[in-house]
Design goal:
The protein is mainly α. It has a domain of about 120 residues: Isoleucyl-tRNA Synthetase, Domain 1 (Orthogonal Bundle). The chain has 10 helices and 3 strands. Helix 8 packs antiparallel against helix 9. The radius of gyration is 21 Å and the shape is globular. The protein starts with a helix and ends with a helix.
């Protein structure tokens, strides 16, 4: 009918998912049902909890190619281990360290070694790959790419050991933290489509405005001497008792 009318632009790419079931602790997987009460009511959830962990998990398990289940235990575990333990941990340790030992400002670039260049290259590549995946509607894969960069950032921090460098080579310590802060800037942009509220918290900590969320800014570095905002916790730990206390 639309083709016969001749005035409609037909869809060129149809994005469709399979069904999403639900699994509560100690129970079998079941269909989401309002009448049976097998659901998590978003309105009630948002009265006590931040939306981003829920957005994160729903994207991570989206039934893009086959049926999936919202597993409450897994939701809590991924919030506590991935959002807090990986993404939040990197942002917090970087911001806290910079404020404590480097005057709360972006340090000078200094002499970047191969490991530093590799980390910055990973930021650029991750921004490009995430953009391509989003354009292709592969949201799960795009989110996986973002978290892969966050994991690599933690590995970089551990390998460079800035807590040792600050005592033995302060200039190299500054270079390390400069790279870490550039990584947070990239992460802030590429995580924004998934976790917009957390991205806003990162913007406040970096002391930059929302214009940086424009994708072409993802690979633009923060200038040396740029003052940073105060560190803040990105994510709160969850447990089943709090989620289902009623």
């Amino acid at each position: 009918m639309m083709m016969a009318d001749g005035t409609y632009q037909l869809p060129s790419y149809v994005v469709a998912n399979a069904f999403l079931n639900i699994k509560f602790p100690g129970q079998e997987e079941a269909k989401i049902s309002k009448s049976r009460g097998t659901a998590i009511w978003v309105e009630e959830y948002l009265k006590s909890f931040d939306p981003d962990p829920l957005r994160y998990y729903l994207t991570a398990i989206a039934p893009e190619t086959q049926r999936a289940a919202f597993d409450v235990d897994e939701f809590i575990n991924r919030n506590n281990t991935e959002l807090i333990g990986t993404f939040g941990n990197f942002v917090n340790r970087t911001m806290t360290f910079t404020h404590r030992y480097l005057d709360g400002k972006v340090p000078a670039t200094g002499r970047r070694e191969q490991i530093d260049q590799k980390q910055l290259a990973a930021c650029r590549q991750s921004a490009d790959k995430t953009a391509d995946l989003l354009d292709a509607f592969h949201f799960k894969a795009a989110l996986t790419e973002v978290m892969s960069l966050a994991r690599q950032a933690n590995a970089y921090f551990d390998a460079k050991q800035p807590w040792v460098q600050r005592k033995t080579d302060l200039a190299q310590c500054g270079t390390t933290m400069n790279v870490c802060l550039q990584t947070i800037k990239t992460l802030t942009t590429i995580i924004a489509p998934f976790l917009p509220f957390s991205a806003d918290k990162c913007l406040a900590q970096l002391n930059i405005d929302r214009s940086v969320l424009a994708w072409d800014q993802a690979k633009v570095e923060l200038p040396a001497g740029h003052p940073l905002g105060k560190p803040q916790v990105l994510f709160q730990k969850l447990d089943a008792a709090e989620l289902f206390e009623d």
